[in-house]
Design goal:
The structure holds two protein chains of two kinds.
Chain A lengths: L2 H10 L9 E4 L4 H4 L3 H12 L4 E2 L9 H5 L5 H18 L3 E4 L2 H16 L1 H15 L8 E2 L2 H7 L1 H7 L14 E5 L2 H4 L15 H8 L3 E3 L13 H4 L4 H15 L6 E4 L3 H17 L12 E3 H8 L17 H7 L31
Parallel strand pairs in A: 1-2, 1-3, 3-4, 5-6, 5-7, 7-8
Helix pairs in contact in A: 3-15, 5-7, 6-7, 8-11, 13-14
Chain B lengths: L3 E5 L3 H12 L3 E5 L14 E2 L4 E2 H10 L6 E3 L4 E6 L5 E5 L4 E4 L1 E4 L3 E3 L16 E3 H9 L14 E8 L15 H15 L4 E6 L9 H10 L4 E4 L2 E6 L5 E7 L4 E7 L1 E6 L1 E3 L1 H10 L26 E3 L9 H19 L14
Parallel strand pairs in B: 1-2, 1-9, 2-5, 9-20, 11-18, 12-13, 12-18, 13-14
Antiparallel strand pairs in B: 3-4, 6-7, 7-8, 10-19, 15-16, 16-17
Helix pairs in contact in B: 1-2, 1-7, 4-5
The chains are: A alpha/beta, B alpha/beta.
Chain lengths: 357, 352
Amino acid sequence: MKEEGKKRIWSEYQKEVPDDHYYYVRSCIRQTFFPGSEQAFLRILREELNRDVYENPYHTTCTGIAYHADIVPFDTTMTVVARQFALMTESGYRNYVPSCITSFGIYTEILETWKHFPEVEARIREKLWKATKREFKIPENLSHSSDVIYHFRNEIAEKAKYRLVNCKTGEPLKVVDHIGCHYAKMFPEKGIGGAEFPQVLSGMIEAWGGEVIDYPERRHCCGFGFRQYIVQANRGYSLSCSRKKFESMEPYEPDLIITNCPGCPMFLDRWQYVISEMEGKTYGKNGFGIPVFTYEEIAGLVLGYDPWELGLQVHQVSCEPVLDKIGIPYKLTEKFTGKNKEFLGVPKMPQYLKFCC
Amino acid sequence: MKKKVLVIGGGIAGIEASAFLSNMGFDVTLVEKEEKVGGHLNNWEKLFPTMRYGSEVLDFLKQGLNGKVKVLTSSELEKIERIEDQRFDISISSGLNETADAILVTTGYELFDARKKEEYGYGIYENVITSADLEGYFNSNREVRTSGGKIPERIGFVHCVGSRDEKVGNVYCSKVCCVTAVKQSIEIKQKYPDCEVFCFYMDLRMYGMHFEHLFKEAQEKYGVQFIRGRLSEAFENQDKSVLIKVEDTLLNRPLKMSVDLLVLMVGFVPAQGTLKIGRMLGLENGINGFFKTRDQHTLTNVSNVQGVFFAGCCTSPKTITNTITDARAAASTIAAYLLNCEIDKRTVNTRK
């Protein structure tokens, strides 16, 4: 792999990310899947970097998953998104930062549609007005929240307590980056680094001391793929997609996987358990899986945040092997202790996949 | 006084047209930006469909120059101005000034930059090369090896890289890549009989005389396998071989395989020189970025600017045979113009 070739491509796909005043919109599913991630994003932006981030409590779904599952028509999606933009406008912000990759894809697709078909935008404005009496301005900037963390990756590295380095050997951790399909595959110029060799996560990995692993199925879908999972009969296909990726990355012996999409960490994490139950196969060392993280979790870890504050206890694949390698302290006894200090109970143990508790 | 012709570009078309025009009695100056004339033909060892050496053709063409043409190599045009109705004043980088009664543009093509097809990984994966890179091995008599130094056991050729591809903005066929892949795959099999060769194509355009014969020979005599399907993507395996994903459209199923070497059959794009000269002279471009000829059927060497003519690949991709023919046609068209022949007065009437 010739790094200079990748760097040349990266130089062609750099986007402007605003430096402050973000209108942040949460994902529908991330708070359930990886509950500490969005909170970590806000904490990093507000407390570490002293940036202004606003959240509007009236924000709703963008309808993305329903749209891609052919349940909601495009006009409905566009009108809902128009309402989101109206909320942003009313809040006095112009830098729109979605936490969700599906939403990012939806917003990108709609803004491109309106750019090329102004009559569609006019129609949606009329529909929004009729339904809500709201008006909106187009965001001056649309950046995914991983774009924002990428933008501040060097500042985060300067403040970091830990690096993505094996504290015993001094070797960089081997990290697989997995980019949500709707981040750049539809509109390569909207993603940092483009669609084929995205830089958004690999830039973070390198800034924080890790080594990026390229493996043959790097571009392949995580397995979510909307209809692959949402249509129950297709779930075998979802599972086989994830399995294809694990089989492909396994020879490179990655220490961890880092993702920027709501669905990807969910499926790459949970399906490792399912594969282990079905086939007795695990992909990490000593019977463990390959831990899967969101980029906010990794940013939080290098900044020294408590692993359980980041919500790592809800991961199916145990994260402790990575914490041990980096040298991050943690109390196993507090892993399943709730915010109110009450013991929440220990999940049922998998048959094959090793789990720390 | 002899009428003067300036020929811009010393490739196949420029050499052959200069030769004919000078032999007809015109005073010809040929300007070439490279150190030597011959253009792309210098880089190709053997030619389809005969497998003859490219140097044989080039030697033949050069005989026509034979001291009669003023050849200025390592020279570029700096300025062209029309000084009278019929004449041009030309400044050349070497400090020379020339005048010309007619200009023949033969600025040719460049090869498509394969890095633009990012999904194929040229410039990133160690064992992805272009057809021009492979020809470089043949032309310099080097053994074809992978980046790790081993004889390739399996090679894939990808047709239409940068041609017939809306994604990169080139919707046209480059005309020579299909048969070049056939030629190069045969050469690989001749040099390395144990190497498996796969060609991935959309459809094979074997239009030229003997092309079909060569294609058949590749299959029957050399066992080259032709698979109808374009690559969706390529990736580098841990051992640096290239994993490719293709849809086999005849079997209606996806196909995944690893090859030791992946050869991208790069198409033609207008040369930078073509774009520069076009701006200098105010020449019109066609939809594909190549120069637009006055008429597609009849006035194929005539530009939109009086006294400026075209030959060769600056108007569209062409084979060597067609380029030579086009150069001769351009020479006779220019002669008719300069000699004020009756035949030059013809026009094309479009019926409504």
